[in-house]
Design goal:
The structure is a single chain. By secondary structure, the protein is α+β, with helices and mostly antiparallel strands. It folds into two domains: 2-128, Trna Endonuclease, Chain: A, domain 1 (3-Layer(aba) Sandwich); 197-404, BirA Bifunctional Protein, domain 2 (2-Layer Sandwich), CATH 3.30.930. Helices cover 35% and strands 23% of the residues. It is built from twelve helices and twelve strands. The strands form two sheets. It has a seven-stranded antiparallel beta sheet with strand order 6-7-8-9-12-10-11. The longest helix has 22 residues, at 185-206. The radius of gyration is 27 Å and the shape is elongated. The termini are far apart.
Amino acid sequence: MGHALASGSELPAAFVTFLLGRPISIEAPNIFVQQLPGASPVERLSSSEEASPSVPDMCIVGTSGERSVCLVVECKVEAKLEADQLRKHLAGARKRGYQEVHVIAITPRDADRSIVSSLGEQFHYCSWPEVYLWMHENRSNNLVRTFTEYLAIVEAEAREKGSLEEMLTDFTGIPFEKIEQPYKYEVAKSALRWLRGHLATTLQNHGTFTGLAPQKKRPSITDDGDSVWDVIGTGPKERGFTEDPHFGVVVSRSETGLELTIPNNARAAWKHLKSKSLAEWETMFAAVDASVRSISKSTRSPVVPRVELHQRHFLARRKQIRDASMEFNIAVQVPEKTNPEVKHVAAWLPGLKDIVSSHGQANMQLTVKVAFPYGDGSIVHRAAFKDTAVIAIAALRPFFDFASGAQ
């Protein structure tokens, strides 16, 4: 973090103002990493202070008017924050003659805020997600952007091994674009975790879908090469998510999708799908298409309602092999020609219905997806996408009711 801040002439002073929550003019700021100004990284405090070392993660020093200023920054990710360590940082900076000293603690645990505030007015708290958002706003600097990506990687690795429950980042949109910022697995994984958690909490609180089971998800997120994905299950919690319809979040190289999948083993759902008439299929898809068009209009972003049907078999019960696939934009079978760029071809829907009727002859999976392609100006690249994602999942309600027999 220190090296990222030092790479921009205006960044240190701006970061100090952000940390203190008030404007402060610091002239000629200098940044020291893993040491107090004028000290070596291995220096220990004198016996008159404490016998143990007090080496902060970073110091920002300068002058404000005629006063010398020192901000001592202590960063924690997995380690516990200790009040005594912060007091030692304050004593160490004062020993070096700084007239105005502030000690900043940065951790992912909001409970640490009260610990810091109890120490006195020289002590300040800031969470990692707050730092991440500030860094994101200044990401035009290459090293700052690299630091935000590094923070996402640290978060993903720590949460994967179970040593961190809190978040280090915050959701700022899906950053990927084909040229400017290509797909990176660790960054995609961080965005996926945030989106999935936000969706599960929001949908559960709103009671949008009957039988939602937020605790049902993938046991681990793996790198598929071109995408990462996770699910929000439905149905009895003792069953695996592949036994019932489930919602999905997919972050890929070219788009982010919110979807509802009917897996092969969701027998009751397939029974309902087989019982539907062609007219009922048309009505259901028209409702989904109308909701998606509303999202596209309100966000001024391209949004694609897509159907994906796959026939598969598995090698050694693990490796998936696709034997056949059908995929189409829902707009192709909506007679009203809701998308002028998509030509209406009535044959797609009867074909889909015929294949669905043959479920049981082979392993099949049916998905309806609301896809947000990456591109300039798209809502998918902004923090507001977290709320749009909730609306996109809600747009799948007609399909959910259709497959559950509620419609």
